[in-house]
Design brief:
This protein is an alpha/beta fold and 354 residues long. The protein has 15 helices and 10 strands. The protein folds into 2 domains: 220 residues, Rossmann fold; 99 residues, Rossmann fold (3-Layer(aba) Sandwich). The protein binds pyridoxal-5'-phosphate.
Length: 354
Amino acid sequence: MTLSVPAGVIERYLEFLPFADGAPDLTIGEGGTPLVRAPVLEDRTGIREVWLKLEGCNPTGSFKDRGMVVAVAKALEADARALICASTGNTAAAAAAYGARAGVMTVCVVPHGSTAAGKLAQTRMFGARVVAVTGTFDHALTIVRQLAERDGVILVNSVNPHRLEGQKTAAFEIVDALGDAPDELYLPVGNAGNIAAYWRGFVGYREAGRATQTPVLRGFQAEGAAPMVLGHPIDDPVTQASAIRIGNPANWEEAAAACDASDGSIEAVPEAAMADAYRLLAQEMGVFVESASAAGVAGLLQRRAGGSASPERVVCVLTGSGLKDPDTALRESDDPIAAPPDLDAVTRVLGWSD
Ligand SMILES: *Cc1c(COP(=O)(O)O)cnc(C)c1O
């Protein structure tokens, strides 16, 4: 008897992906992430079903792996010499991992000093060449777009069309698990690739007869980094959530069109609401996400508090793992209580003495 192993997203969803005659055999086990109910959020919102899609359970700890496996497989088909990306961290980690797996050199250009420790640790450990520029993500993206004009250098940012093709598999998994698309989908928006990719996935599945409906898309940007809400790019995006600290989203047009087609919205959430949702997910649901990932849940709570009409079934996409950014977690949680190594002292500091 052979043990069945979970295939990656290319093998499972090949018919929906851009491989005409078979795909390179590339996977680190991406996709197949848990979809779990959130009774705490159902109680708070009055919505019948609230589901959480735990994308932090992907191999490098974010949804970026879904798109990266497809982009790197296509790069292999094209005999790539090097992969290159600009990144606030998670794209770099995913590119470096799949580059290592595929045996292709990876170059990551990151904004100096604003990459979370876990993401930088992964990227370096996977063996990527990391360049830290004294500028923003948007500067880094401008530079790598130009470097990618060289022969054999493949840009793997979400402007690479294969990234979004891979990322749409998350929508397939949600429909496969629930039997149909949810009424609404809540998620954070940075470069706006993921929201566009989900739309491609839901529409693709409906057209293939696998779903009867598509969800209303509800995207959320941090208040200080909300170009799509303001309607124009911003030079100096500010938010603690570095994964969505983006002033000029690369996929703006497709995302805005997707949002309109779904009858949805892109809204801003205050920093404090994201921090509250970040703690709520961990402390009442046992789900540790990075702070950007909490934007969708913050947005859900904000919309319900504003008295919006109640959908029956919603999914919140939790885009990345809390382990990516230990510094924020340590800042937002209680310090350990210091005590000498004896029973009485520990009992006392716990307040358990009679
Ligand atoms: C990339 C990323 C986002 C933003 O996704 P976009 O496709 O850029 O909108 C949100 N959360 C996490 C954890 C990410 O890594």
